[in-house]
Amino acid sequence: MRLLLNQAERLAHLQRLLESQLQPAARAHCHLASWRDGVLLLVVTDGHWATRLRYQQKRLQRQLLALEAFGNLHRILFKVQPPVTPAKRSGHAAELSSDAAESIRDTAAGISDPKLKAALERLAAHGKAKVPR
Question: What is the pLDDT of residues 9-30, one digit of tens each?
Answer without folding.
Answer: 999 999 999 999 999 999 999 9
